[in-house]
Amino acid sequence: MGAEDAASAESFLKPFLAALASFMCQFQLGAILGQSSTMLPQLQAEDSPIRITKEYASWIASAGVIGTPIASVLAGPLTDKMGRKSVIRMHFLLSAIGHTIVGVSSDGTEILIGRVILSCATGFGVPSLVYIPEICNPRHRSPLLFTATVSSSLGLVYVYTLGGILSWDITAMLTSSLAIIGLVYTFIVPESPAWLFRSHRLNEAIDSIKWLKGQNVNMELELRSLKDACHEQPKERVSLLKQFASPTVIKPFLVLTIISFLQNASGFYILLYYSIDFFLEFKSSYDPRFVSVGLAVTRLVSCTVASVIINRFCRKTMGTFSGLSMGVILLGILGYLHAFGDDAAVLSRYSWVPAAGLTLYVFACSLGVHPLPWLMIFELYPLEVRGRMCGISNGMCYVFTFVFTKLYYTFIANFKIQGTILLFMVASVLFGLFSAFVLPETQGKTLVEIEDRFRPKKKPDKESALP
What is the pTM of this model? Predict the structure, then answer.
């Protein structure tokens, strides 16, 4: 038994070391996501060497996703053409360049340029998750993918914590250094054996398999499994436009577009991008930097919980519970503001109420509203269009993120904090209702069963219907 345990640990170690490249990539994505939250308050401070308006601040925040839709659409075919590691390297290179430009910026325009480059890095970072299932055994796939999800949350905790202690430019330069370390690391780990085999680079595929699974691996069995996987290719090429018109494509696209829109309208990404500014609207006596770190830690914990339970409950149940719970929590926060919004002394005395409410909101969101659109993108589309349509739906998600983060200050200026929370509450409830009555169930179903769910129901022949 001891020898078996040692062999099992060894078979996990090498794929884990290779997957560190993806983990570092996901860490960067979390850092990019939370960068504006600690940077914007410093730039808007009275003693800031670079002064920006609220309008310009909204451009800096939303610029973090402005190039992501295009980059994520391009990343899919580039991942198949150039290899998994090449696209991951593009992510690290763009991250290093973007953070460096932000770190050495002397005006708002240079910061904006750096943020746009970082948004492109985000798009090229999404396919890093494709690398993990192709380098490990099936039994190790879930823990490695789970670790990648946690890595993104760790990146958010990192940037909130460091950005709350150090100036935004030093934080950016340190994050750039981490991106360079990740870039160098990609030259140590092997390329995906599946991609190498598919690209007719047999000797390199064999070397990659030996690196990942040891010299004594059953190479004949490994190569046969790769050959079988490569046979599962569509025989006939059909234009994407013609495929898009199919009910098995257009219906999932509409479902994913709606839940992605409601996800962003529920305010989750606005809170992540503007956590300090948002909490200041409550006139709380708490330091908003500490609250931001607390929210990031909550997201880390809730992502961990969600990754454990998401395969034990139905997607519809998770979405319904998450959306309606967020609605109830936001209703409580709205009631608190309605009752005491004009009394600064009471708001200061009960500062724990909005802090606790937003913490519960982030926890509830991470159980369904946040992960489901991203998860179901990879479940709903048919195999022959999955790569391209996943890129398009990913791009749509980031378009909505850009729009809502750009409009944050407009919401606050026109609707105040109460109206903005009301918007979040309505969207959260609609997400819950949509999950309950419209969202297709995918948990425990094969991809073929999911695809059949969207096919038009065939009418029975009249002759066969006769008695």
Answer: 0.80
